[in-house]
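Worked Example 4.2. Consider the chain below.
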Amino acid sequence: MKKIIQIARLELSLLFYSPIAWLLILVLFLQMALAFLSSIAEIQYLQEFIPVTGISERLFTTMIGTDTIPVGIFLTMLGSLYLYTPLITMGIISREMNTGTIKLLYSSPVQLSQVVYGKFLAMLGYNLVVMVLMSLFVVAGASTVQHFDYSHILVAMLASFLLMNAYSAIGIFMSSLTTYQVIAAIGTFAVLAFMNYIGKFGRGIDFVRDLTYSLSMPSRAERMVGGLLTSRDVIYYLVICGIFLGFTIAKLELARTSRSVAKQVSRYALILILGLTVAYISSRQPLIAYYDATATQSNTLVKATQEVLKQMGDEPIEMTEYINVMDDSYNYGAPENRISSIARWEPYLRFKSNIKLNWVYYNSSFDLQAFTERAKYLEVDTADFLTPEAIRKQVDLSGEDNRLVIQLKYKGKTTFLRTFFDGGFWAKEPEVAAALKRLLLTPPKIVFVTDGYQRSVAKIGDRDYQQFFNIKTFRPALINQGFDIDSLSLENSEIPAGIATLVIADPKVEFSQNALAKLQKYITAGGNLLVAGEPGKQAVINPVLSMLGLKMSNGTLVQRSRDYSYGLVTPNLGAAALSMSSGLKTPYEDKKVVAMPGVAAINIADKGVFKAQPVLITDDKKSWIKAGTFVLDSAALVFEAKNGDQKGAFPTAMMLTRKLNQKEQRIMVSGDADFMSNNEMNRGNLATVNNAFVLHLFKWFSNDQFPVDMTKIESVDNKLELNEAGLRTIQIMYYGVIPAAIFILGMILLTRRKRK
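Applying the procedure from the previous section yields the following structure tokens:
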């Protein structure tokens, strides 16, 4: 070890007596300074106008740049580090070969492995100097960012260090292949470029794709810069260093002795196989250790999802992705995109390693010519796709429109995980967690009553309900958040037991005695219920409300407004909304409103068995009950007490609860049926919380089972404590003082060397 250190010290002295080493350090520092200071200036400007969160990540590690905030500096440097290493390593061994001193090494008592390790240790020292320069930016960030995320940034620095060391090992090997330093540098550039881009080759072929991806270097560093440290990635970089250092030792030893080509090749092959074996074993899912360095645990599944996977125990999950070549979604699931598909499942594999991933490609068209032309256009082999008959025997995808869909299977139960028509396309954690949880328990079912021409959950009209509940390609739809959606006629069917809730939405004709009797039986048995009526239909809805001890008041609520129709009422959330769902705390505290176009007040008619609490309440300063009939657009409405108008704060939605059969019966009554309509859920001209209110309403009906709670840790590094004077000081230091100090120190050392 002593000889290795001596060689390293000698090599370091040679490095720092070279002008190129100082020049590269100076250029590297200025490149980082330019990226860092532009980012910090932009964030300082932005936070004067809007909240800026996660500043540590934005400065150092963010992977998505914008017009105003550049990519984090460590991620920026990952794409540049390979430009610096070849110029440092190009002469590390080729210089010995060019001057003839390599012969002295061959005849010296020093082992060739010690020489190689010593030179590599010198490069580690040089890389540590680079890391010290990088740490100056971390110091600047830590001194200006409130609650700086140290662990995340330190892991990002480790990623840069490991990547530079791997580049150095490759550079040392390339330097051992030639006596010409320029050729060594060009060769190193070529190999590093190859290692940087090899992951993009052969993506359409399974074996080739897996091999090239395993050799790709930057993607692993990017994960670490993102804050996720894994044993697999650390071992990978150590293996790369070991392989190329082994190649270097083999090259020098083989150059000293005469051996057959077969023996030379076999030695290189042995080193490569040994290294790849270690990398392969360390990449097996059960053996990977993870550490999420981010303060917000952004690389880790939320607690609720982890709990779902834990409850699944040791039983395997089978994931099968069905990809239809005839659908526009094919490209997302094409073999060349398989790596990204696997990466999407890694957060789940981290907590449950026995998730089996399958991909099935099929053709849904019986038109053979169309299929052949499509395959020719995509340049794929028609033999790789199941026929329409074969896929129908395996799974029924007709209800999924034959687009790309994922089926999850667990203990004989199956459920679909869909893809969507938004920019994200793939299911994200809320949808995946909901699908997994559906495999553990009976999904809550929402049943819509159809009697009396009620609002439909199967129509996309303005006043109907399909979008929020029943569109399979719409990510927030409750059908994609764990719920089952169904409908029935009270007149012709029995209400099924065990449903999450029954929905009566704006019946336009009175229920028959038969239907009312079924409804009364359902309520008496403790079934959950949502009743949404409309003003003007009190005679239709009140017979139902009388079973609950409530009554829809005569007249229509109106609200004075400069911009909107008087018929658009915007009640606030009442305190009872918090007992319904803690997720409504922020909207309640911020006095957010729910839009209700055309609404009647709900009153308690008699004290019954239910505990009644108002959930939505109008503002008594600008709204009142308007009696009789009126035309909204004829003139501005005025309060007319003599005609029966009533002032006050009126409930527009009432929550009823009671304990029955060791469970809580939950009922919601609304004087408006439009608050969850397709139109209101897409309103863009008024800041409302209809979506959140309806979501938490049905979460309440499902006993908080669905949607799965996606509460994440919020970032605390949300303030940059830097004024204009401080920014100027940092700019002077990092654009002027520190680069000047590096330049002067380099000049002093180079001058001393020249004098000696």
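The two ends are 29 Å apart (CA to CA). The longest strand covers residues 651-660. Compare this with Example 4.1 before moving on.
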